[in-house]
Amino acid sequence: MKLPVNYDELTPKQRREVREFYCKWQEWKCIHCNNHLLKDPADFVQKLRLDLDLFPKGFLTHPIHLHHNHKTGLVIGAVHARCNGVLWQHHGE
């Protein structure tokens, strides 16, 4: 797979394939908090408040997200859903 890819140009099936690729490539570690992607995010992430009104309905429903640059659309890596929210709300990513 040639990376990075443009998130905005991917179908839902392609997003799933890219997400699975990144999970394996990252050895199932979140690129933000470094905890295992199938476990809870790190404590420093859990402590930060998320304003759920800022996010689309169901944002936290899927546990693993593809983090991407909102300006270029390029995928950066796989993160916990909560880490993705923290990156967006608290870091402008």
Task: Give structural notes.
This protein has 93 residues and is an alpha+beta fold. The protein contains three helices and two strands. The chain has a two-stranded antiparallel sheet with strand order 1-2. The longest helix has 14 residues, at 12-25. It starts with 11 loop residues before the first helix and ends with a helix.
Task: Show the helix and strand layout.
Elements: H1 12-25, H2 43-46, E1 64-68, E2 75-80, H3 81-91
Antiparallel strand pairs: 1-2
Q: Report how far the terminal alpha carbons are from each other.
A: 24 Å
SSE succession: HHEEH
Class by helix and strand content? alpha+beta
Largest sheet: 2 strands, antiparallel
Gross morphology is globular
Strand arrangement in the largest pleated sheet: 1-2
Radius of gyration: 13 Å
Number of helices: 3
Mean pLDDT: 96
User: Percent range for helical residues?
Assistant: 25-40%
Number of strands: 2
Unreliable sequence segments: none
Strand content is 5-15%
In short:
The chain is of the alpha+beta class and 93 residues long. It has helices at 12-25, 43-46, 81-91; strands at residues 64-68, 75-80.
Core attributes:
93 residues, alpha+beta, two-stranded antiparallel sheet, 3 helices, 12% strand, globular
